[in-house]
Amino acid sequence: MISILDQDFSQLNDFLTQLKPTQLLILVDENTHEYCLPTLLENLETEIPFEIIEIEAGEELKTLETATQLWEILTEFETDRKALMINLGGGVITDMGGFIASTYKRGIPFINIPTTLLGMCDASIGGKTGIDHQFLKNIIGTFAHPEAIFVFPEFLNTLPFEELRSGFAEMLKHGLITDEKHWNDLISIQNLTPENVFPFIETSMKIKQNVVEQDFAEQNIRKTLNFGHTIGHALESLFLLKGKPIMHGEAVALGMICETRISMLQDLISEETSDTIISNLRKFFPHINVSAFSGEEILNLMKNDKKNSHGNINFSLLTEIGNSIFNCSVPAENIKNSLLYYQNMP
Ligand code: NAD
Ligand code: ZN
């Protein structure tokens, strides 16, 4: 798997010339059709026949029904195993497209061209594909690597601010868990705009890729990428159940605040370090009122997280800025304390 920051589409064109697929299947959603596909088509220098497959935008469409439609479309197109699927979109498209490509005829090659910041720095890298089923996120899926990932930062220019900020939460996480300099660079950004984020995308891509390469099957170090996600996922699900969804990055930022506090309560970092991290996270993310949920309710959801085993809630926690550990068992009391701390923040 290679991920390439391609400024001018030349590397994508070279890749296609070498691979010589029989057909290109370009998967887009309605937004990437409008905002990203024209640029891609303008820059593609190839005679290979292509088909555009569009699905509606949104997580709600990351379902078995959509997958079934897509498998049927490939069958109608008489797609063979030498075709290449091009997933042009955010994490929904790269997850769904990767899933379809890795299962159709037992697998056809695919590449990811992520168009959201979250996609560029996180979702398109790491070989996890999947769909949601019966309200469970990513419950059906495969491990399958794209042939390559091509990142064109200019696609971020049309991305709504909240989506940019959501991806930025994952970048901050990369800094916190592995790279103090990256964290310092990111928190120095005054104004969250695509141009200000561009210079740091490559580092985040490399951090994610490096962690995944060391531990593809998530037996050890890959678990550190779950920092902020144990509490983050639980709250993301609770807000969704309430019919008031919050963005993934907002939930992760909230989760990172609580889990930084837990790192302190577990004596892994000092109160001063914890306060520094939390005040910087709060510069970028608005406070979310979580008073509607009880500590018990949140704990119960966390116990069901598929990343846990034998009923223990496992956390990845910080030992300093730029360093983290995994498989930390945390007493319920500390989890509840961290939530209370968050809720009572001014
Ligand atoms: P998304 O794909 O839904 O994109 C967010 C929104 O932005 C959508 O409305 C989309 O149409 C729009 N959009 C995309 N690119 C655009 C552009 N350039 N300009 C304007 N609008 C654009 O969501 P996401 O945040 O990219 O990804 C979230 C998904 O990723 C979730 O389903 C999550 O489960 C998955 N994910 C997967 C992994 C993994 O390792 N496989 C990791 C993290 C997240
Ligand atoms: Zn995440």
From TrEMBL:
Q: What class of enzyme is it?
A: lyase
Q: Which cofactor does it need?
A: Co(2+); NAD(+); Zn(2+)
| Single GO BP term | amino acid biosynthetic process
What positions does the domain 3-dehydroquinate synthase C-terminal occupy?
A: 167-308
Q: Where in the cell is it found?
A: Cytoplasm
- Record-annotated 3-dehydroquinate synthase N-terminal domain positions: 53-165
- Catalytic activities: 7-phospho-2-dehydro-3-deoxy-D-arabino-heptonate = 3-dehydroquinate + phosphate
Classification via PANTHER family:
3-DEHYDROQUINATE SYNTHASE, 3-DEHYDROQUINATE SYNTHASE, CHLOROPLASTIC
Q: What is this protein called?
A: 3-dehydroquinate synthase
